[in-house]
Amino acid sequence: QAWIELWRAKCAAQRLSTMADNCSKPACPGEGCHLTHAEGWGILLGCLLIFALIAGLAIPLMMRELRKRGVTAKSEEGADFWYSARNSQGWLSIAFSICATSAGGWLLYTPAEAAVMGGWWALIGYCVAIALGPLVMCILAPIFREQMPDSANVTDWVLNRFGLIPFIYVTLILVYYMFIYLVGQLKTMGDMTEKFTGMAPEAGVVPLAIVTMLYTMVGGFPASIVTDWVQAVCIMILVFGICIAVWGWVDFEQQHWDQVSTGSDRGFEMAVSLCFAVFGAEVFNLAFWQRIYAARDVRQLRIGFGVGAALVSLLTFIFGLTGMLLKAQDLARHCGPRNQIPAFVFFEILEMPEATKGIRVVMYILVVSMIASNADSFQTAITSTISRALKRQSWPTWKNIAVTQAFVVAVNVPAILFANYAANDKNANFDGLAVKLTDLFSMADILTITLVAPLFSGLLPFVTAKGAMAGMLSGMLFIMAWGWFEFDTFMGGMEMITMMCFGNIKPPPSANGAPGCGFYSSRAAIMFPVLPLVTGAVTWFVSYLERSWEKLQKIAAMFPLPQEQEVGMATI
Questions:
Q1: Which residue, 12, 121, 176, 544, has most beta carbons within 10 Å?
Q2: 295 - beta bridge partners?
């Protein structure tokens, strides 16, 4: 017993000594804060070169598949395969592709942020939320494939089912959503370039955007799928390796862990809002929809999406748990917590004594892999929105592809500029775009959730185009009305479209500590669940009125007026 007590005392003294060292040492111990510029360029360009070479494999693989189908690359079916890789992928390829497409730069920020702010409730909610989209697709995607087997994306189905006006409206929202998410990925690349190498953000943003854009322009959608295989495996190996090592490095008392992990009403609120917000975004992730039509058959689709959802949910949990452990260690510092911004808690790893240059190199490779996997998927997904519209023009294949390439460039140039601006928008108040990645996402999520009920109701023949359009517009009006009534100004309604994160009105945090804007705000836990109810009710009500009017017209046609009365009525 005496030896045990002596050992405990020694461990306690060593822990206090370590805490004191952590307070007195600089933030970047040992080998310095940054990789050298040469090391940073070498890692970035080396990874991008490897991904480009792997993407090049897509061309012979595509040609082999086309030969098996008895068509040429210049034929209409060959061009369609370049856009869609239709009916060619097994479940493992789909699973890796879903994992790589979803596992972007957001993993570095938002799971840890949610877990630190809301504890276990928020983390579990996030893990469920990120898997809901692919899991729902397992159920609904076969119906979409059956109704429109030659589609390449959900926008094609909208055009065929509801007509031109709903197609334009949905396409604008989804391209805006994908654009915001692409900007978020490129901005994260700029942030990480500055954090790991000390170089300006554009040193990371521009090369990554250009290289991923070039290899997807050459190889099309098959190039994105082939790179996904390698990127998914790389991401999973590096994440498990880094996070498990960190779990062994952290040091804190039970009281600090209890402080971080305790569930609360606030955490439950976050879980609810996350489930709806993230689901609304993921279920309309255009990159996922491409993979619905790339799957070899329905069985491969369902298994692939199910396994992919499980992998992404697992990665989310690992990042969130690591963030909680790092926050508990930060609270254990006897000189007080160092990190005051929940979104940055994962990067406490870089301030640990064990974070050698080798660890920093591995983390930087992970960052490049995660962001490149998202960027190339979003770039090809955006082009798929216009693929069917181009087919209708009956243009030569080369002209269709040329227009698509021009569209890719037209989207990427402003995305690069916006990402550079956001990465450099820093100030002492921590309210610039450099720290508002989650807020950018919430701007897109609030719009995509308005599409869920109207569009999916369209799988049933009863719903009309006018009903779906009315339902989608009612969601936008509901958002604006909420802001108008809450803040008593019309501009409050307009700013609510940004979830109050951008504009002149700055709502204060709630009494329970919830931020005043974004999908972590208290209002989000009400708005996101209510929006599908409102939009669904309006969709079905307007469709009911239209169908009732059609029935009345049919009944009236059964009892035509006498010819004399018709003439009289026409005169009147």
A1: 121
A2: 89
CA distance 228 to 109: 22
pLDDT value, residue 319: 95
> How many whole angstroms separate alpha carbon 117 and alpha carbon 125?
13
Return d(Cα 112, Cα 109) in angstroms, integer: 6
Task: Out of 68-72, 220-224, 433-437, give the one with best mean pLDDT.
Answer: 220-224
Structural contact between residues 284 and 451, judged by C-beta atoms closer than 8 angstroms? yes
Q: Is the pLDDT of residue 206 over 60?
A: yes
In a 3-state reduction of DSSP, which class is residue 89? Answer: strand
Chain centroid to CA 424: how far? 22
Q: For residue 204, which amino acid is it?
A: G
Residue at 424: amino acid letter: N
Q: Global pTM? A: 0.87
Three-state secondary-structure class, residue 427: coil
What one-letter code names the amino acid at 571?
A: T
Q: How many CA atoms lie within 13 A of 455 on its CB side?
A: 28
Residue 321 amino acid letter: L
In the chain, the domains with their CATH numbers are 36-439 (1.20.1730.10), 449-572 (no CATH)
DSSP class of residue 342 equals: G
Nearest 5°: phi and psi at 89?
A: -110, 140
Token pair, residue 429, equals 């108040």
What pLDDT is attached to residue 84? 86
Percent with pLDDT over 90 in the chain: 50
Residue range 117-135: mean pLDDT, rounded: 93
Q: CB–CB of 92/304 below 8 Å?
A: yes
In the numeric block, which tokens belong to residue 187?
A: 């901005």
Q: How many CA atoms lie within 13 A of 381 on its CB side?
A: 30
Query: What size, in residues, is the chain?
Result: 572
Query: Long-range contacts made by residues 52-55, C-beta under 8 angstroms, separation at least 24?
Result: 52/211, 52/214, 52/215, 54/226, 54/227, 54/230, 55/215, 55/216, 55/218, 55/219, 55/223, 55/224, 55/226, 55/227, 55/376
Question: Rounded distance, CA 103 to CA 113, Å?
Answer: 16
Query: Is residue 569 packed enough to be buried (19+ CB in 10 Å), middle (13-18) or exposed (0-12)?
Result: exposed
Handedness of CA 207, 209, 211, 212 (dihedral sign): positive
**Tokens 């070899």 map to which residue?**
296
Tokens 């090369």 sit at which residue? 207
- SS3 per residue for 37-64: HHHHHHHHHHHHHHHHHHHHCHHHHHHH
Query: How many angstroms separate the CA atoms of 15 and 112, rounded?
Result: 25
Rounded to whole angstroms, the Cα distance separating 486 from 560 reads: 53
* Amino acid 439: pLDDT: 80
Helical H segments across 148-201, by residue range: 154-162, 164-197
Structure tokens given for 252: 């804190």
Average pLDDT, the chain: 86
Kindly tell me if the per-residue pLDDT of 3 is higher than 70: no
CA 311, 267, 432, 328 dihedral sign is negative
Q: CA 359: distance to chain centroid?
A: 27
Highest mean predicted confidence (pLDDT) among 304-308, 387-391, 443-447, 489-493: 304-308
Q: b/e for 368-387, b at 16 or more Cβ within 10 A?
A: bbbbbbbbbbbbbbbbbbbb
